[in-house]
Amino acid sequence: MAKKKKAPTSNTIALNKKARHDYFIEEKFEAGLELQGWEVKSCREGKAQLTDSYVIFKGGEAWLLGARIQPLPSASTHFVTEPDRTRRLLLKRRELHKLITAVEQKGHAVVATALYWKKHLIKCEIALAKGKAKYDKRETEKERDWNRQKQRVLHTDNR
């Protein structure tokens, strides 16, 4: 008797919802992530956080700062587990150059927006973003509330 495969669950490991609140997302990129074995196991358990994470460029490479991958309690004792260590992002040279030139402009930043599985690999979605002012954040919130109210009215009218 053949074993049945489990139903595919969500490929998303972690989201950075705060990035959409604090920035205007201009362009998204998919980057590979250089991880250690214990980090992959922790990501399988969903122990990753991207809140307040961002990307810096040093030595012609991209590095992810502020991402937290909590080690499992069953992690081996002979590994030094650093949950907040900087991790190298794997990007194509063209994408890397595009991001570096954009960040040199005033007001632009590169933030991590999501961690997800792509087949057996962990990918990080990074976005080129421009910071929002306080009034922009309020305007976005008002628009979201208005859209929510509009959907409620349409939903009740269709019954």
TrEMBL record:
Question: Mind listing the GO molecular function terms for this protein?
Answer: RNA binding
The name under which this protein is listed is SsrA-binding protein
One of this protein's Pfam families, by short name? SmpB
- One GO CC annotation: cytosol
Localization terms from the record: Cytoplasm
User: What lineage, starting at the top, does this entry show?
Assistant: Bacteria, Pseudomonadati, Pseudomonadota, Gammaproteobacteria, Cellvibrionales
Entry keyword annotation includes RNA-binding: yes
Q: What's the chief localization of this chain?
A: cytoplasm
* Classification via NCBIfam families: PRK05422.1 (NF003843), smpB (TIGR00086)
- Name the Gene3D superfamilies on file: 2.40.280.10
